[in-house]
Amino acid sequence: MEKTQSLHAYIKEELLDRIKSRKYLPGEKIPTELELCKDFDVSRTTVRTALNQLTLEGYLNRIQGKGTFVAEQKVKQALSNTIKRYSDQIAVQGKKGAVTVVDISVVPANDILTQTLEVPLNAPIQRIERVRKADGEPTQYEIAYIPWDVAPGIKESHAATSLYASLADAFQVRIAKTIETIEITLADERTSRHLQCEEDLPCFYMETIAEDADGKKVEFSRSYYRGDKTNFTIERKY
Q1: Residues facing 205 on adjacent strands
Q2: Pick from 185, 197, 85, 93: which is nearest to 138 by CA?
Q3: Quick one: 106 and 164 in the same domain?
Q4: Between the CA atoms of 169, 101, 148 and 211, what dihedral angle is there, to the nearest 10 degrees?
Q5: Where does the record place a coiled coil (predicted)?
Q6: pLDDT for 194-204, tens place per residue?
């Protein structure tokens, strides 16, 4: 243990190593708090703090009266250059991906849409609200905005699969570049309802601006990912 590291942080790290090395398998019950106290020679409060943090981060499930179990592996998504659809990224992890379209409507461009999409104020914008799922569990809630003149008349059939693929196939609009910003947020009432989680659950929040080969802004989206169900992989080549 590093000198600057607290006991509960050390225990959390050790337990996380056991989970990621598959010493503790998904769905498996881990040792009790008392057994972990003896294993690490620490107090129950210290063990409980470590377990609470791992539970909050989605690595453990604590079931009242039954014990603590290893959670299913988080859904991995790539932030590097990729042409794979969500369903394809999920499939290689042994999971079944699905997209549920919550709503499609046309709204007038407000100040933020005017700035991000570079359209006139009140220009017609298609607002597409979707939820992505892995094995039936919501992992991502997304609201995408696409100018009407970019792809007029987007239907549910277009949005129920890869939106970028639909833009290319149905509207001959090809995404050449995306700019993505990620930060941490807490699930509010609307987000928690769509992600089927508790309010104030830590979530990844991502804003994306997509451009075509000519640099025209064709989409702006806001996405919320369950922090306990999702992680991201970034690959850089030098």
Answers
A1: 183, 224
A2: 197
A3: yes
A4: -60
A5: none
A6: 999 988 888 88
Helices (H) and strands (E) in the chain, counts: 8, 10
Helix (H) or strand (E) holding 184: strand 177-186
Half-sphere exposure of 176 (CA within 13 A, CB side): 9
The alpha carbon of residue 53 and the mean position of all alpha carbons in its chain are separated, in whole angstroms, by 19
Question: What pLDDT is stored for residue 132 in this prediction?
Answer: 92
Helices (H), 95-200: 111-117, 156-159, 163-171, 189-195
Residue 156 tokens read as 């549910």
**Rounded CA separation 132/110 (Å):** 26
| Distance set, CA 102 to CA 99, 123, 160 (Å) | 9, 23, 10
Say if residue 189 is in the same domain as residue 216.
yes
Tokens 């039954």 map to which residue? 66
* Paired tokens of 168: 């290319």
Whether residues 201 and 108 share a domain: the answer is: yes
Q: Which residues does 38 contact at the CB level (< 8 Å), separation at least 6? A: none
Residues 125 and 24 in one domain: no
User: How do strand 75-78 and strand 230-233 relate by DSSP bridges?
Assistant: parallel
Q: What is the pLDDT of residues 177-189, one digit of tens each?
A: 999 888 888 888 8
Whether the per-residue pLDDT at 222 is higher than 60: the answer is yes
